[in-house]
Amino acid sequence: CSPTSFAITYFFLGKQIKSRQLLNEHTINFFSEFYFTREDDLIMEKVKNSKFRDLEDALQYYSAEDAGVNIIITNNYFDFEHSIIPVYHPLQYINQFLI
């Protein structure tokens, strides 16, 4: 999981959970089993020179690539047209691999 995904999740949970302490506890608990990818200067150089239309998608992609991730699961699978890593919509992944 990327640090960006952590931040986005925290942001959206914060719209529903108004207590900062509860928000922090839920977010930390949710991500407790995840390993995080890097987002550093090396990744950012790739992002800045990428063919991705959306810089956030590029950040997620190059962070995943650096970590040796085998697949990417995202609602925005259509934004990863330049991906060498297989990209799945969550429902597609569930239907193909979990059911």
**Order of helical and strand elements:** HHHHEEH
Radius of gyration: 15 Å
Instruction: Count the beta strands.
Output: 2
Give me the number of helical elements: 5
Structural class call reads mainly alpha
Q: Indicate the mean pLDDT.
A: 94
User: What ranges have pLDDT less than 50 throughout 5 or more consecutive residues?
Assistant: none
Mind summarizing the main beta sheet? Answer: 2 strands, parallel
Strand content: under 5%
Roughly how much helix do the residues carry, as a percent range?
Answer: 55-70%
Termini distance? 23 Å
- For the largest beta sheet, what order do the strands appear in spatially? 1-2
User: What is the 3D shape?
Assistant: globular
Summarize it.
This protein is mostly helical and 99 residues long. The protein has helices at 3-16, 20-30, 41-48, 55-67, 90-98, and strands at residues 72-73, 87-88.
